[in-house]
Specification:
Oligomer: single chain
Number of strands: 7
Structural class: alpha+beta
Bound molecules: flavin-adenine dinucleotide
Distance between the termini: 25 Å
CATH superfamily of the largest domain: Butyryl-CoA Dehydrogenase, subunit A, domain 3
Shape: globular
Number of helices: 13
CATH topology of the largest domain: Butyryl-CoA Dehydrogenase, subunit A, domain 3
CATH architecture of the largest domain: Up-down Bundle
Strand order of the largest sheet: 2-3-7-6
C-alpha cells in the first residue's frame, strides 16, 4: 500500500515549493480572472483546469514511481487555499479531486488500481465522487444501492443526487452496499472510469454559491471487474483517509475564501487611510476581528494536518474516537469561521463590500462560504460527535 504519510515526509523541498507556487500563480492569474464569470454562468472553471493539467497538478499526490509528483497533503492543502483565493469553485473542485486521489493512493492495492494511478498521472484525469444518494441524502455512511457481483464482474446503479463536475469527470468513486443482502452501513468504495459508467442527468445545479462546481444530479449505471472495488470496508477507509483528508482540504479551500475576503477588506481600509492621512479608519477594528478569525482558521487547519501526519500509518490511531472527534470538529469550526470572517470583512468595507460593482465586493465570497456548513450538515456532524463523546475515554495528554 502506498502511504500518504511517508510521501509527505519524503517529498523533496524543491518539489513542495513548486506545487504551491504553481497553484498560487494559476489561482491569482487564471482562476481569479474567470471567477465572476464562472459564478454568474454556473459553469465549470475550464481555464483554471486546463492550466492545472498543463502544470501536471492533477496527479501531484500520486507516488513518483507511478508517474505522479509524490506531493504531501500539506502541499495539496496549500494548493487548494491558493486556488480558492482566486476562485472558490476551482479550489473546491481541486480539493474534491485530490480527496479521491488520496483514497486511491492509500487503499488501492492491486494492479488495476496502480494501472489507473499511472493513467491519471499520465493523462491528468479528473476524479469525482458519488457518495450522496437520493434515498439517503447527506447520510453518506448508509447506501441503498448495492454492488451486484457475477463471477469476476459487477454492476452497480445509483441515484446520485449530487456529483460535482460529473460531466467533466474521467473517473468516479462511488459508495454502495457490498452486495444486495448487506445492511445499509456495510459499504464499499467502487472506482469506475468513464468507459465503465453511463450518467443520465436528473437535476441541474443552480445554487446560491459554489456555482462553478456544477454539482448536478445523475442516475449512474456502471459495470466493471471486481478488482476495481477498494478492498477495505468504506467505514474504515472513511475513518482512515476520506474523512480526515476531506475535512482538511475543504477547510483549506474555505481558508482561501476567507483570506481573499480579508485581503479585500485590508485594501479597503488602506484606501480609507489614504483618503484621510494621519487617522486610523474606524473600519480597521472590524478588519482586526476578521484577521483574528482568519488566524484561528489557519491554526486549526495546521494542527489537524499535523495530527493526521502523526496518526498516518497507524490504523488504530486513525480509527480512534478522539481522532474522529478532532477531524469532525475541524470541519464544523472552519465552516462556521469562514462565514464569520467574510461577514466581518463585509462590515469592514460597508457598502463597498455589499455592492457587486466595486474592487471590494464580497457577495460571491459570502454565498460560497454559506455552502461550508451544509457540505455534510454541521448539525449532522455534531449529533454524531455527541454520540461518540458518550463512549470516548478522556485522553491522557494534550498532544494525543
Ligand atoms: C458545493 C457542494 C458540492 C457537493 N459535491 C458533492 C459530490 O461531488 N458528490 C456527492 O456525493 N455529494 C456532494 N455534495 C453533497 C454533500 O456531500 C452532502 O451530501 C449534502 O450537502 C447534504 O445535503 P442535505 O443538506 O440535503 O442533506 P442532509 O444531510 O440529509 O441534511 C438535511 C438537513 O437535516 C439536518 N440533519 C441531518 N441529520 C441530522 C442530525 N443527525 N441531527 C441534526 N440535524 C440533522 C441537516 O443539518 C440539514 O439541515 C456537495 C454539496 C455541496 C454543497
Amino acid at each position: 500500500m502506498a502511504e500518504l504519510a511517508p510521501a509527505s515526509v519524503q517529498a523533496p523541498a524543491q518539489a513542495q515549493t513548486n506545487v504551491v507556487a504553481r497553484a498560487r500563480s494559476i489561482g491569482a492569474e487564471i482562476a481569479a480572472r474567470h471567477a465572476a464569470d464562472v459564478d454568474r454562468d454556473g459553469r465549470f472553471p475550464s481555464e483554471a483546469f486546463d492550466a492545472l493539467r498543463a502544470e501536471k497538478l492533477l496527479g501531484v499526490m500520486i507516488p513518483v514511481e507511478l508517474g505522479g509528483g509524490g506531493a504531501s497533503l500539506f502541499d495539496v492543502a496549500a494548493a487548494c487555499h491558493a486556488l480558492a483565493r482566486g476562485c472558490a469553485a476551482t479550489g473546491m473542485i481541486y480539493a474534491m479531486h485530490q480527496i479521491q486521489i488520496a483514497c486511491l493512493v492509500n487503499h488501492g492495492d492491486n494492479g488495476w488500481h496502480r494501472g489507473l494511478m499511472e493513467r491519471i498521472a499520465a493523462g491528468q484525469l479528473l476524479l469525482g465522487s458519488a457518495t450522496t444518494e437520493a434515498e439517503t441524502g447527506g447520510d453518506i455512511r448508509n447506501s441503498v444501492c448495492a454492488v451486484r457481483a457475477e463471477g469476476d464482474r459487477f454492476t452497480l446503479a445509483k441515484n446520485a443526487s449530487v456529483i460535482s463536475y460529473g460531466d467533466q469527470s474521467d473517473v468516479i468513486l462511488v459508495t454502495a452496499r457490498r452486495n444486495p443482502d448487506a445492511p445499509s452501513s456495510d459499504q464499499v468504495l467502487v472506482v469506475v472510469t468513464k468507459d465503465d459508467y453511463r450518467l443520465e442527468k436528473t437535476s441541474r445545479w443552480d445554487a446560491m454559491g459554489m456555482r462553478g462546481t456544477c454539482s448536478d444530479g445523475y442516475r449512474l449505471e456502471a459495470a466493471g471487474v471486481i478488482d476495481q472495488i477498494l478492498p477495505l470496508s468504506y467505514a474504515d477507509l472513511s475513518a482512515q483517509t476520506m474523512l480526515p483528508v476531506t475535512h482538511i482540504l475543504w477547510s483549506s479551500t474555505w481558508l482561501g475564501i476567507a483570506a481573499d475576503a480579508v485581503s479585500r477588506a485590508r485594501a479597503y481600509v488602506r484606501s480609507e487611510a489614504k483618503r484621510k492621512p494621519g487617522t486610523t479608519p474606524a473600519s480597521a477594528v472590524r478588519l482586526a476581528e476578521a484577521t483574528a478569525k482568519l488566524q484561528q482558521m489557519k491554526a486549526v487547519i495546521l494542527a489537524a494536518i499535523r495530527q493526521y501526519e502523526l496518526a498516518c500509518g497507524s490504523p488504530e490511531r486513525l480509527t480512534s474516537l478522539s481522532f474522529a472527534t478532532a477531524m469532525g470538529t475541524l470541519k464544523v469550526t472552519t465552516s462556521e469561521l469562514v462565514r464569520e470572517v467574510v461577514e466581518a470583512a463585509i462590515r469592514t468595507c460597508g457598502l463597498a463590500g455589499y455592492r457587486n460593482d466595486t474592487p471590494y465586493s464580497l457577495g460571491r465570497h459570502l454565498r460560497d462560504a454559506h455552502s461550508a456548513a451544509l457540505m455534510i450538515g454541521n448539525d449532522r456532524i455534531m449529533s454524531h460527535i455527541s454520540t461518540q463523546l458518550l463512549v470516548q475515554r478522556d485522553g491522557s495528554g494534550a498532544f494525543e
